[in-house]
Amino acid sequence: MMAKRRFAGKIQTEKVRDAAVFGRGSGVHRKAAACVVTLALAMTLSMPAVGFADTQSSSTSTDAAAAATTTVSGYAKSHNRSDYTKTMTDTVKVSPAYGRSLKVYHYDQDRKKWVKESTYTTADTYSSKVKIYFSDYWKTRPKTKFKIVMGAVKGDGTAYSEPITQRYASREAVKSVGATKLSSKMTTSFNPITAKTAVVMNATTHELVYQKNPDTTRKPSSMTKMMTAILLREKFTLGHKVKITSEAANTPWGIGLKKGDTMTVRNLLYAMFLPSANDAACASGIAVGGTTSNFAAMMNARAAQLGCTHTVYKNAHGLDTVGNYSTARDQALVGSYVMTASNLGALRKAARTKSKVIYSGKGRKYTLYSTNALLGTGTFSGLKTGTTTLGGYSFCGAFTVNGQTYVSVVMASSTSSNRFADTRKLAGLTEELVSDSQQTAS
């Protein structure tokens, strides 16, 4: 028989509280445990909550009955990861458990909302250990927030006057006084690369596989030449001859083009993609736009058409100047267009060429070597390096994973060699994530 009662009572210590709520405690004989529980259930308890810096608890018990404090311990409040090939796990201890659900969420920075990853059911005991397996979401960006959520157990204040078993008493005690809701947050840091900003983009869908400050504006340096090459090819045939102007011949860091000479569009593409010749880029821009300023306006309009929202070009070559900037995401969009547009096969061919000998209209010979150190390794097939004083070391790469083309962009890498090391790591990470995604889908 059940009898509902209301009492004003207060338990001062953890030991006494455990004895009253869960049928345990020194000085109480085991055989009297059921009586202790019966007495506890007949009282309205006021119990102090245990404070945790990383938890937020709120009581959901009714009729002024205080809730049993929920605790989740053993998890790491912060994870510092470097190896993307390993799964992130935590083993946590939950109490009171008794078959309650434990849910794991990550914070989706793009959608600005918490997304549930998985749900675990605790054991049918007061304390339960649960091994948590986190999804690969933390591998897609340098910092990720997670949280563990235990729902509250609502209490009804009911007391039992008849003797009941210890296990049943403990479960009903938790139910009667209620168990608080708990939300424990943690942060995972993952920084596999030295570049200050980076992305990996599916060249066809434009989905970002990895991102690190993707919309932070920086100097695009010679990655600018990808846009110059696009407009040059869209304007002229490959055999069209471009006249070298005085402005182009005097542009620094070129291959030494001479005023009054000519160069075919095809050879200008090789000059821009292999040694990153600024004089070839300047000549191309003037040929298309008439002047450098007019050509810059054309570049910006074309970038907008491709979906770039944080890009301003000021010249055809990418040398530092006031007001020019772009982002890793925007440069990946440009690179993706180079890798997928049916009319840009000549650009892709130039981008994957390691060396080339070309001639000007007057028979001048130029031996060109690519600045892309990844050509000939793995599945890399381009695209464009960049280096300036303000822009640092950057690189737009292209590679294939499971038959799909991906474009990576790193900007402001710490050294010239690190931009390629960064890109190799991003390619490996992409392969890991794509393979895991396909296995999950199947």
Number of domains: 2
Number of strands: 20
* Corresponding CATH superfamily of the largest domain: DD-peptidase/beta-lactamase superfamily
CATH fold descriptor of the largest domain: Beta-lactamase
Q: What is the CATH architecture assignment of the largest domain?
A: 3-Layer(aba) Sandwich
Counting helices, strands and paired strands, the structural category is alpha+beta
Give the terminus-to-terminus CA distance.
54 Å
Helical stretch tally: 11
Q: Calculate Rg over CA atoms.
A: 32 Å
| Regions with little confidence, pLDDT below 50 for 5+ residues | 1-65, 157-164
> What share of the residues lie within helices?
25-40%
Mean pLDDT metric: 83
Top CATH class of the largest domain: Alpha Beta
Overall 3D form: elongated
Biggest β-sheet description = 6 strands, mixed
Estimate the strand proportion. 25-35%
Ordered list of secondary-structure elements with their pairings:
Blueprint: E1 2-3, H1 14-22, H2 33-41, E2 55-58, E3 71-73, E4 78-81, E5 89-95, E6 101-108, E7 113-121, E8 128-133, E9 143-150, E10 159-160, H3 166-177, E11 181-190, E12 197-202, E13 208-212, H4 224-235, E14 241-243, H5 246-249, E15 262-264, H6 265-273, H7 278-289, H8 292-305, H9 328-340, H10 345-351, E16 355-359, E17 365-369, E18 382-388, E19 392-401, E20 404-413, H11 416-441
Parallel strand pairs: 4-11
Antiparallel strand pairs: 1-10, 2-11, 3-5, 5-8, 6-7, 6-9, 9-11, 12-13, 12-20, 14-15, 16-17, 18-19, 19-20
